[in-house]
Design goal:
single chain, TIM Barrel, eight-stranded parallel beta sheet, about 35% helix
Length: about 300
């Protein structure tokens, strides 16, 4: 199931999503040796960020609500982690996607230029729903989103994908960005809240958080389906726990998928498991992966 995205070869289309097991070189290595075709970093900003105070995560039956708040060590420190792992990942054919964020186009551009030599692609986080002044607050502003994407695309020579929130007008944002990015990642988490009925207040210190897991898969599939008409490569993400989930995204129009919450629920080798489940379906149907991408539109 080898694929090409924007001229880059991936040994398979099952990637690690940003936000889980992407904090350091050791975590990325563990994911890589368990079958991921690419690893996506934790969202990295220009300077270190402590994020929100605890509690920052609530475990649900089939997912999570988190408000980590884009906690990260800053791009200069994170590059040191990438230096430790880049040679090993190249050797085993696993690509690196850098998820980055900033408060405006200048910050995004500076982070992108710094991290470009150490990664294969850049994913712009304009969709995190729980970081004040960042993420979704940019993604909801079409003009600002356009400026961010255009600025980064003009500053680097590697593919640039915009990570889209389901809580925006998909057609409006896609039409604005389709000429200034190489592709889309869809979706990010969905803004939500959990209240402790005994304490009578929200559990998360930030009150609101990003909902992930099985709950959001139908939303993610819908957004990928809508984006497909813009003829840009799409990486589908949100609630993918098994091969059947991934196949829905492929049939909606995704060329690759990212796995997040399922790492916790099915183990580090979830990438190998999902690969086998997809392959079994394709072999049974007498199909190749390229045959089903976007097939739900026919």
């Amino acid at each position: 199931m080898e694929i090409k995205l924007c001229g880059i070869k991936f040994k398979n289309p099952i990637f690690l999503a940003s936000g889980i097991m992407g904090d350091n070189a050791g975590a990325l290595k563990r994911i890589a040796i368990n079958g991921a075709g690419a690893v996506t970093t934790k969202s990295i900003g220009l300077k270190p960020n402590m994020g929100h105070k605890n509690p920052v995560i609530v475990e649900l039956d089939e997912g999570f609500l988190n408000a980590v708040g884009l906690a990260n060590p800053g791009v200069d420190n994170y590059i040191e982690e990438l230096k430790k792992i880049r040679g090993f990942l190249d050797k085993i054919g696993v690509r690196i996607i850098a998820s980055i964020y900033g408060k405006d186009e200048e910050e995004f551009k500076e982070v992108a230029k710094k991290i470009e030599p150490y990664v294969d692609m850049i994913e712009l986080n304009i969709s995190c729903p729980h970081a004040k002044g960042y993420g979704l607050e940019i993604g909801q502003d079409v003009d600002l989103s356009y400026n961010v994407c255009k600025s980064v695309k003009s500053a680097v020579n590697i593919p640039v994908f915009a990570k889209i929130s389901p809580m925006v007008n998909i057609r409006e944002i896609a039409e604005a960005l389709c000429n200034v990015v190489d592709g889309f990642t869809a979706i990010n988490t969905v803004k939500g809240m959990v209240i402790d009925i005994n304490m009578k207040k929200p559990i998360l210190s930030n009150k609101f958080g990003g909902l992930s897991g099985k709950y959001i898969k139908p939303i993610g599939v819908r957004v990928v389906y809508e984006l497909y008409e813009y003829k840009k490569p799409i990486i589908g993400v949100g609630g993918i726990f098994n091969g059947r989930d991934a196949l829905e995204y492929f049939m909606a129009g995704a060329s690759a998928v990212q796995i997040g919450s399922a790492v916790y629920f099915r183990g580090y080798d979830v990438f190998n498991k999902i690969y086998k489940e997809i392959k079994e379906f394709l072999d049974k149907e007498g199909l190749e992966l390229k045959d089903i991408i976007g097939i739900a539109h026919e």
